[in-house]
Amino acid sequence: MEYRKLGTTGIDVSLICLGTMTWGEQNSQADAHRQLDYAVDQGVNFIDTAELYAIPPKAETQGLTESYIGNWLKGRTDRDRLVIASKVAGPGEFVSHIRGGPRLDAGHMTRALDASLARLQCEAIDLYQVHWPERHTNYFGELGFTPADEKNVIPIEETLEVLDGFVRAGKVRHIGISNETPWGTMRYLQLAEERGWPRIQSVQNPYNLLNRSYEVGMAEISWREQCGLLAYSPLGFGVLSGKYLDGQKPPGARLTLFESYLRYSGEEAVAATAAYAQLARNHGLTPAQMALAFVTSRPFLTSNIIGATTMEQLRENIDSVHVTLQRDVLDGIEAIHRRYSNPAP
After folding, report:
1. CB atoms within 10 A of CB 207
2. Which residues of the chain have pLDDT under 70?
3. What pLDDT is attached to residue 231?
4. Cβ(58)–Cβ(97) under 8 Å?
5. Half-sphere exposure of 148 (CA within 13 A, CB side)
6. Model pLDDT for residues 192-203, shown as the tens digit of each residue
7. Dist CA 276 CA 328 (whole Å)
8. DSSP-derived 3-state class of residue 228
9. What is the distance between the alpha carbons of residues 136 and 252, in angstroms, rounded to a whole number?
10. For residue 183, with 0-12 CB atoms within 10 Å meaning exposed, 13-18 middle and 19 or more buried, which class applies?
11. What is the distance between the alpha carbons of residues 289 and 122, in angstroms, rounded to a whole number?
12. Which residues are catalytic, by number?
């Protein structure tokens, strides 16, 4: 396994991070513990979760993922060498079952953190992230920016001050953001410098062969400000593995079970996926390995968050860290990208 620094913390995190959002929905607690045991044995020390999980979000399964991790952690003696990341939910109709509609203010965030700590059975969370902004902006695949009435929006200043209190109390070691824009990222950094508040150490945004929009405004920030990308959806909901090509619907797969997850399934995205899959096979790689190896090769990346519902998928995804893409493969990727530029932003 390879490791990179988490921002300016001095903490080494594995280049592969174990994503967990299917646990509690597509995966049982026993499945989760098998995945955790295997990943740690392979050198993975970075585990990412959220108060929202399992996915798709619903009241019956909310928090189950953190509970599965907590039950696993309590039986281990190596907690100090693991980096546990979680997230606090922002507002939105799809999370109305959480605290009657979560907000990024002191009351909601304190309740969220205390509940996550209890489920994780931890004294502190190593990396606590704002899952998505309070304000209206372009995330979760929304294109463009349209100004909106923000008189009731919790400002970033208030949210960051709450996070500062968590760090001072010893309940959170470091902080990060997720689904953020260049403006939001720089605002967090500016406020931290001005007020002496904690500095964000990472940005967890989508990044994959079908959506390289992070490169446009965010990659330079990640590099220059030492708050690297934690790439989620590196396989685009599993689409880039090629398993859905030609209309296939594998039993138990996410897009077979949850047909509304269409972000990476548009006509151009399907055509691009077929081209990437053929390129990989032409060079003796699996489509998943090539897609993941491309993400891990990026200099602005801190860690690649992989997820799996089967042990076979988990092994292939973790093994991608050993794949180095040759120049002709990278050139082929760029040629396809020029033809299908970000078909699933």
Report:
1. 28
2. none
3. 98
4. yes
5. 11
6. 999 999 999 999
7. 13
8. coil
9. 34
10. middle
11. 34
12. 53
Tokens (6 digits) for 197:
């508040």
- At residue 186, the pLDDT reads 98
d(CA 195, CA 109): 20
pLDDT of residue 80: 94
Give the pLDDT confidence score for residue 44 in this predicted structure. 98
Say if strands 301-306 and 16-19 run parallel, antiparallel, or are unpaired.
Answer: parallel
What is the per-residue pLDDT for 103? 98
The gap from C-alpha 175 to its chain's centroid, in whole angstroms, comes to 14
Strands (E), 104-248: 125-130, 172-178, 200-206, 229-232
Which among 340, 189, 173 is positioned nearest to 270, based on CA atoms?
340
- Return the structure tokens found at 174: 């470091």
Q: What CATH number has the domain spanning 3-236+298-323?
A: 3.20.20.100
State the amino acid at position 28 in one-letter form: S
Residue 247 confidence (pLDDT): 87
Name every residue whose Cβ is closer than 8 Å to that of residue 103 and which is 6 or more positions away in sequence. 90, 91, 134, 154
Residue with token string 């929009």: 213
- Domain borders along the chain are 3-236+298-323
Tens of pLDDT, residues 199-227:
999 999 999 999 999 999 999 999 999 99
Q: From 20, 82, 84, select the one nearest 54 (Cα to Cα).
A: 20
Q: Backbone dihedral region of 40: left (phi > 0), alpha (psi from -120 to 50 degrees) or beta?
A: alpha
